[in-house]
Amino acid sequence: MVVRFSDPFETLLGLQRALESARSSDWFGLGTSSRGAFPPVNVFQQDDDFVVVTEIPGVDKSDLEVKVRENQLQIAGSRSSTYGEGASLHRRERRMGGFNRTVSFPTEIDSQGVKAEYHDGILAVFVPRVAKAKPRTVNIA
Hints:
The protein is mainly beta. Helices cover 11% and strands 33% of the residues.
């Protein structure tokens, strides 16, 4: 059997559309859970350093683990939920179970200076760059 493609670019575009649809929202779908990266993170630069903020409501502080290695930050943990006896689950959009997200930074970071704060389901991780990676002002003679 020989498969022939009349337009290879149209074939690639079709593949791209199929991949995008597989990752799209299932808001009106028949499934009982949602998809997507969890937990969602916002990464921004504040002054010379990076800040990573993620929302993980329902996770106990003791169930979180933040690790730093080279230029990467890893946030791992688990979230569980219990339903009352005889409850019937109709839709679950809040992901349960273990999670693991890794954020890569474009520069070398100071792993000893990383600090994390967790309040009301919001985790903020402050990630300083190493001194040699920070920009410096050069005086012109």
